[in-house]
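Hi support team,

I submitted a single chain yesterday and got back a structure, but I'm not sure I'm reading the token output correctly. Could someone confirm the output below corresponds to the sequence I sent? I've pasted both exactly as they appear in my results page.

Thanks,
R.
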Amino acid sequence: MKTIPLISHIGRQAFNVLLAFLLLAITGNEGWAQDTTETLKPRKDFTTRVWLGAHLLPGSGQVVNKQYWKLPIFYAGMGSMVYMGIHSNQTYLSKLSAYNSLADDDPNKEIYKEQMVKRRRARNAYVAAAGVAYIASVADAVLVYNNEKHSPVAATILSTLVPGMGQAYNQKYWKIPVIYGGLSTFYFMISWNNRGYKRFKKALLYVMDDDPTTIDEFNGARSEDNLRYYMDSYRRNRDLCILGVTAVYVLNILDANVDGFLYDWNVDDNLSFRVEPSVLNSSLASQSYSTPAFGLTCRVTF
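Hi R., thanks for writing in. Yes, this is the structure output for that exact sequence:
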């Protein structure tokens, strides 16, 4: 009869120990999870490494992003364009050699010239397409790697690859026509000044030639000093326009970098600073304590 209370007492103690163990396990797991969350560090940004790797070895960025199915697409595009470019260049060189071997009065010379120009344009188009595929592989690697966050480094890299792409990444689309307007304007000015430079340089060479049978396009109306002056002016303006293109390109990169850092900046309408006219002591004026006065109030809302 005395063993029953003893067994009951042991059972209650065991139940209490088990309950305490469960409570300790629950609270301990929560505390461990909280500590783990607090000590968890943000993921390091390896955008620059992904960019450099994709530059040195096209497709390495897709390997980092575990998108292996894109590798044959990029390599097929770049490989086919390079192959076609090499083939077109060989045809162009053969046409050029045949064109140079013909006499000036040969009626087939113009035909060979047209074929030569077509192959040269095709070669340049294939090379440009291969470059586009290469740039697309690098841009794709950077964009996919930063898919879950907005990275200022990615915006800078994209604007370095293609002017305006970083602005599109930062959703500042209105800046793209401004950038390309500046680049196209300076490009036109470079081309125009370069044509003028070559024109006066050719005329100057004719004037400096001792052969009296050679006549420049101005029929000798301009002196050597005059031709040299205009040639130097066009060359100087051309070089300044080249600096202008470089400046627009660099500003495009800096703008993308700054907008990338300010992308998550709080621009809520509740953040404001207002200066408004107001009437001071208006409530006291009704009680004849003082006269109202006009002034300014500054209101800061946050």
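A quick pointer for reading it: The CA atoms of residues 69 and 162 lie 25 Å apart. Let us know if anything else looks off.

Best,
Support desk
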